Structure formats: structure tokens, C-alpha cells
DNA sequence: TTGTAAGCGTTATCAA
DNA sequence: TTGATAACGCTTACAA
């Protein structure tokens, strides 16, 4: 790899002139500039990003960190793609960090990102508060996504979870459902709590009493979704509809329903938070609330670059709107 | 962030002693070592990875590049996770690069990875041969995955595509199918060619004449899969079974079948290459060939670290075996 | 407008 | 066993 010095030699100038040609072209004489540019082309010179990053306060050679629980969850794949497209447009590279929501991995990646002098980090706020503190003190711009946190000092982009949940539960109710089961993640996570709130709100708005027997929460995994649904289906007075609060839980809900040989929607209606490419392929096609997950990533990355450019602007909170996608998995409902 | 110098001052030694304590603990006096280690703990010192990487031939502060077409394709998400888990275990960070198989993005990321002095790169061989050449000359260890290439000088991990395709087509034939449609990617891509070969091989082994009317290829996308299937379904003598050669095509195939109001498997059997979390939720559950995609990533990363450790060992070719997952989407077959 | 030189945080070489 | 110091490739005062 050619270095600044190689270019300087070839162009017959000093390294600083070459550097200037690259970073402040207007400050160099037109003739020298062409000469230097020729040398750069000739040697296929590319600035070494590591050397650039070694200098503090350097605005070039951007490197972003992106912490997510698990790339195998399609919601996060979408977010990652959104972030990366923005990063690409700005010549930035992104370090991908799967944490499994595990403090070991979170700690490791936070350390790595610091040690890499990353220009900023995008991540969902972390449950463990001490680590969160560590992250607040990470010393570089931060953007939260997916989950909001009471602390309003950090740029954040989320979706209106309560509204999404409310919309889809309303839909169920309007179709005649009264006993609606909710399979949710732990309410200690903001998204789960908000979706539960939307569920309760829809019930309340229609004067349907809240029955906590119908609400189950557990880890937001496929297996948990299945086990929780099994519980609900074994109830004496089983629900006529099931609402899975995210895509992983949905997989488990659907699996359980299938194993119980229940027809959808004749025997039971099923709806989910998070749309998926395969949702319309199910029989019947699944009614869902679509989160703009790609856009969430995009906006988060834009917020981050904004923040890098103006470190002192007030923190922004972007609330994206979910969209109810009505397909056929709710039937016409029935009061059981 | 504390630096080596801070630690040195605090411990009352020179920076080289601190550096040595970290990198060659055995070469430093036990007393000084404890003193230095105390200072390190005290200041929460972490080596700056950027500075480490600036020095050539440095074996610490690993940084890997991972080029994939698109993280939103679950096959690649799995691979990424496999790579990352190995990287994490070795304290390495990975830069994620979505290329869309586009030479602009490929070029950009290859440049970035060079400029970041990455320790190595994992990627599927790239179709455009000039870029491939560029990549061969990238000057850092390389591991290919997914697609094999005639050039045997690069470490490679692939799946036995021909066998996978053969197995699943055999399965179809044994169930009585004779007219089997193949929805494939472009045969210029090695994986597509191999899967087509497996398809032909199964036909041939059973004395079924090859009918190229039943084989359609196009871009490996959902839309293409749908359009291609539409074509097949409009045939006078339509196939009794459809084989989608990858997960994106499968989505389109399934969509087309559904829009034609065909029952599976009564009217038509459907099978796919690539298993998916939702494959068993379909009605009927989908018979597939499962690729060990996570393991592909894992093995690729291991190969890369091996290569970094021993740059001169002979190139390895790892061929992973796919697994036929029989579910119910093939019925008992019928000769139409 | 250009060049010299210091500095970013490490590691490696060489002397002590 | 330890410490000075050069080097990695770049940017940026500062001087010319």
C-alpha cells in the first residue's frame, strides 16, 4: 500500500501538501494539486484509516459500532441494513456486535468500540443499569433505538408500540373477539410494557374487563412463545384470539397452535407484532403490525451522524408509526 | 481513556515495561509485574486497538471483514452469526459489509478493509472477475464461503449443493413425481449450477428425461421466483412438483402457488433449498434441504484464524453436508 | 502556498 | 530485567 510519503515523493512535494490536497483542496495551488492528484491516481493511494483514526478529534475515516441482541432476528437484520446503507453513503464502516443481551458480550463490545476509537454507537438501551451507566460514559456519541428510556438526554428512535398494539387489538375486538390472549416479553423491557399497555388500552376502550389470566410473559424467544401459548390453550375458558408481541414469540405461538390442531381463524385468531416476509404465505395469511424496522436503522444512523457533526444540539426523539397489515388470520371473530 | 504512559507513570516504570507486562508477562520481574497490573486495574487501562493496528505485522487487536450480499437474507444472517461467535471468542471485531453483489459496494468495502488493515476477509467469491483479481491481491488472508471457485489456492467452505439438490429431487421422484419444475438462480453462479446439476443427476438416475421447459432461472430474488413460477404454472403440461433453489426464490414460488389457488401437496408439491424457521409452520410443513449455514460461518472464521496463524499452510477446502428435512409438502406424488 | 516537525498510542529494537 | 527511542501513517500547528 502506498503511503502519503510515496505520493509526496512521486509528486515532488511534501507530505503535508499531499495531505492538504486530500483534506483541504482549496488551500493548495491548482498546479500542485493536479500534480498530486495525478500521483495519487497513479499509485492508487488510499489514506490509511487506522492512522487517521489514531489522531483524536478526526472527522474522517468514520467507524460506527452497532450493538444488537442477535442478527438472526429479522427485526435486527432490517435495522442493521438501514444503518449500513446510511453508513455506506457516508464512507463509514460499521462494526457489528451481537450481544445476546448478555453483559459479557456487551462489555466486550463496549470496550472494543472504545479501543477502536469508534465515532459513535447505535444500540438498544441495555437492561442492566450499571452497564447502561458505563455506556452513557462511553465518551462517544450514542443513539438508542427500539427501546426508549426515561433519560431524555440521548438521541432515540423508537416505534409507537402502544399504538401498534392498540390498533391490532382493536381490530380483533371489532371482529367480535372478547377473550384475547397476549403472549409478551418481560414487562421490564420498555417495548413489552408498551405493547401490553396498548393491549390493555384497547380492552378498556371497549369496556372489556382485563383478565390477567390471558396475559403471559416470558423470555422473548420462540420456545417461550410456544410454552406460554400451550398454557393459554389449556385454559378451561381458552381465548378466541392470540396476540404475539414480537416475531420470535410469534413463531412459538404459531407452532403451538398448529400442534393443538387448531384451525386459524375458525378455532382461534392469531395476530402478531412484527411483520415478516413469510407472513402472507401462511394459511391463512397473518394479520400483523408492521414496524418500520429498516427505517429505524436508517434514522438512527442519520441521528448519529448529525450528532457527530453537532455534538451540542438537543437530543432528538423520533417516534415512528407502525402500520396495521390486515390479512386473514382473524376471521370474523366470535364471542366465546 | 488511560494510555500506556499513564499506567507507566502510576506504576513508576517505563512504557515499554508496561507494554511488556501486557504482551510478554514472562519477560518481566514478578514484583514489577504486580505493580504494573495494579496500575492497569486501577486506571482501567485498555490498549488502544487503533494504535496497535497501526504497527504492521501485529498479531493483536484483530479486525475481520465480512462481505455478504445482504444481511436481510437469513442464510447470510446465519453465516454472520457463525463468524461473529468465533471472532468474539478470539477478541476480534468484525466489520460487516453488505454488497448487494454490486461492484461499487464491493470495491468500497475492499478499500475500507485494506485501509483498516484488517487481518483478513471472509466473502463469497465475487462474480466480476476483475474485482476477484483485486481481491486476490488484497494483501491479506482470505476465506471464501458459499461458492467454490476453480482456483484452489484460497481457503474455502461450501456445502455439497449437488448432493443436497439430488437428495431432495430423489425424494420427490420416489414419491412418484415425474414432472419437477426447478426455479433456480443464474447458472453463472456456482451454487446454482451445482444445484441444477443435482437436479439433473436425480432425474437421470431414475431414467426421467430432462425437460428444459421445466427449468427456469433468473435473479435469486423473491420477485423473480414468483414470476418464474407463474411461467411454469401456465404451462399446458404443468409440473406436479416445484423445487425452489434457495430461500428467496422459495418465497416467490410459494407466493405464486398460493395466488394460483393450488393446494399443496394435492395439486402441487413444493420443496426448497434452505430451511427456514417458518418452514414447519406452513400448511403443510415444507420439505427442505437444510444448509448448515451457521456452521459455514463458524468454519470460515476458524479457517481465517488458522491462516493468520500459519500463512503458509496449504489451502483447505471444507465441504459441509446438507440435510434433507422431510415434512409434508410433497404428498405421495402423482404422475401427471 | 508550501514545508518542517510534533503528536496520536502502541510495539520492537537495541543498549544499558 | 528494564528503559530510550524509532517507527507505524496520518493531520495540523507553526514557520518559512
UniProtKB/TrEMBL annotation, chains A, B:
Keywords: DNA-binding, Repressor, Transcription, Transcription regulation
Domain HTH lacI-type: 2-56
The UniProt record lists the keyword Nucleotide-binding: no
UniProt protein name: LacI family transcriptional regulator
Pfam families registered for this protein in UniProt: LacI, Peripla_BP_3
Source species: Longibacter salinarum
DNA-binding listed as a keyword: yes
PROSITE patterns assigned: HTH_LACI_2
An example molecular function term from Gene Ontology annotations: DNA-binding transcription factor activity
InterPro entries associated with the record: HTH_LacI, LacI/GalR-like_sensor, Lambda_DNA-bd_dom_sf, Peripla_BP_I
UniProt lineage: Bacteria, Pseudomonadati, Rhodothermota, Rhodothermia, Rhodothermales
Entry superkingdom: Bacteria
Amino acid at each position: 500500500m502506498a503511503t502519503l510519503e510515496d505520493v509526496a515523493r512521486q509528486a515532488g512535494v511534501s507530505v503535508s501538501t499531499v495531505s492538504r490536497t486530500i483534506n483541504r483542496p482549496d488551500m493548495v495551488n491548482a498546479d500542485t494539486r493536479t500534480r498530486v492528484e495525478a500521483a495519487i491516481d497513479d499509485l492508487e493511494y488510499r489514506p490509511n484509516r487506522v492512522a487517521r483514526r489514531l489522531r483524536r478529534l478526526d472527522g474522517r475515516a468514520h467507524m460506527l459500532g452497532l450493538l444488537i441482541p442477535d442478527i438472526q432476528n429479522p427485526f435486527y437484520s432490517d435495522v442493521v441494513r438501514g444503518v449500513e446503507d446510511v453508513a455506506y453513503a457516508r464512507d463509514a464502516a460499521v462494526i457489528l456486535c451481537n450481544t445476546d443481551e448478555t453483559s459479557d458480550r456487551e462489555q466486550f463490545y463496549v470496550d472494543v468500540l472504545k479501543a477502536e476509537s469508534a465515532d459513535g454507537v447505535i444500540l438498544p438501551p441495555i437492561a442492566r443499569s450499571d452497564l447502561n451507566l458505563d455506556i452513557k460514559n462511553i465518551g462517544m456519541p450514542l443513539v438508542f433505538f427500539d427501546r426508549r428510556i426515561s433519560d431524555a438526554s440521548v438521541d432515540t428512535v423508537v416505534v409507537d408500540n402502544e399504538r401498534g398494539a392498540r390498533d391490532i387489538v382493536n381490530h380483533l375486538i371489532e371482529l367480535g373477539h372478547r377473550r384475547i390472549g397476549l403472549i409478551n416479553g418481560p414487562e421490564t423491557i420498555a417495548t413489552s410494557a408498551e405493547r401490553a399497555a396498548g393491549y390493555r388500552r384497547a380492552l378498556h376502550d371497549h369496556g372489556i374487563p382485563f383478565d390477567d389470566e390471558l396475559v403471559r410473559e416470558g423470555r422473548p424467544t420462540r420456545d417461550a412463545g410456544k410454552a406460554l401459548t400451550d398454557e393459554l390453550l389449556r385454559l378451561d375458558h381458552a381465548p378466541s384470539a392470540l396476540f404475539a408481541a414480537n416475531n420470535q414469540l410469534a413463531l412459538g405461538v404459531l407452532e403451538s397452535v398448529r400442534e393443538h390442531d387448531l384451525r386459524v381463524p375458525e378455532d382461534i385468531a392469531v395476530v402478531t407484532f412484527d411483520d415478516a416476509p413469510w407472513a402472507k404465505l401462511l394459511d391463512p395469511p397473518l394479520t400483523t403490525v408492521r414496524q418500520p424496522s429498516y427505517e429505524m436503522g436508517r434514522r438512527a444512523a442519520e441521528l448519529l451522524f448529525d450528532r457527530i457533526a453537532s455534538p451540542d444540539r438537543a437530543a432528538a426523539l423520533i417516534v415512528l408509526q407502525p402500520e396495521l397489515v390486515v390479512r386473514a388470520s382473524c376471521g370474523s371473530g366470535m364471542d366465546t
